[in-house]
Amino acid sequence: MLQTHAQLNSWTGKPIVLVGLMGAGKTTVGRRLAQRLRLPFVDADAEIESAAGMSVSDIFAKFGEPHFRDGERRVIARLVDGTPKVIATGGGAFINDETRALILGQAISIWLDAEPTVLADRVRRRDTRPLLRGKDPLATLTELARVRNPYYALAEIRVPSVAAPHETTVEAILKALSK
């Protein structure tokens, strides 16, 4: 099984980019995957917050989603630099044509695919999701899945993100990468 940085580097030499809806586990699974592969982990949203000096929620509230998406596109372009690492993206990042083309062309894209019911259960734990503010999480996530899943399906690898320990998803990714 593929488990070390050396094995990954000889296999691809590319960054691994996790895509999928909010609550799919991109950050939590990404951190654990990076540890297992002995690679650096980078969360694109955290990088955006650092660059902007404010939270994603504040960026959405103050400047709107288009401004946030433009910053997100620029940050991901900087992160996908050809060096092996694990990158967690925001849920909307892969929808942007330019960002998606960059990821597909220069990284290994992995879609963490979760059912809206699983996602809604996960995101109810924190009120930090701008697209869910004042809305029904299940209805919103069902609609987001309808619109976004065709884009996520373009990722090289699809891994189910189920209501199980995150290590289950990490193992499924490692298995998919070793093929």
Task: Summarize this entry quickly.
This protein has 179 residues and is of the alpha/beta class. It is 54% helix and 11% strand.
Provide the residue-averaged pLDDT.
86
Low confidence ranges: 1-11
Integer-rounded radius of gyration? 15 Å
* DSSP, total strands: 5
Structural class: alpha/beta
Order of helices and strands: HEHEHHHEHEHHEH
Percentage beta strand: 5-15%
Trace the largest sheet across and list its strands.
2-3-1-4-5
Q: Largest beta sheet, briefly?
A: 5 strands, parallel
Number of helices: 9
Spatial shape: globular
Q: What is the helix fraction of residues, given as a range? A: 40-55%
- How far apart the termini lie comes to 9 Å
Sequence-ordered SSE layout with sheet pairings:
Blueprint: H1 5-11, E1 16-19, H2 26-37, E2 41-43, H3 44-52, H4 56-63, H5 65-79, E3 86-88, H6 97-106, E4 108-113, H7 116-123, H8 137-152, E5 157-160, H9 166-177
Parallel strand pairs: 1-3, 1-4, 2-3, 4-5
Helix pairs in contact: 2-9, 3-5, 4-5, 7-8
Quickly list its features:
179 residues, alpha/beta, five-stranded parallel sheet, 9 helices, 54% helix
Please, could you describe this protein's structure?
39% of the residues are buried. The chain starts with a helix and ends with a helix. The longest helix has 16 residues. The chain is globular and about 40 Å long. The N terminus is likely disordered. Helices cover 54% and strands 11% of the residues. A five-stranded parallel sheet has the order 2-3-1-4-5, sandwiched between helices. With 179 residues, it is of the alpha/beta class. The chain contains nine helices and five strands; from the N terminus they run H-E-H-E-H-H-H-E-H-E-H-H-E-H.
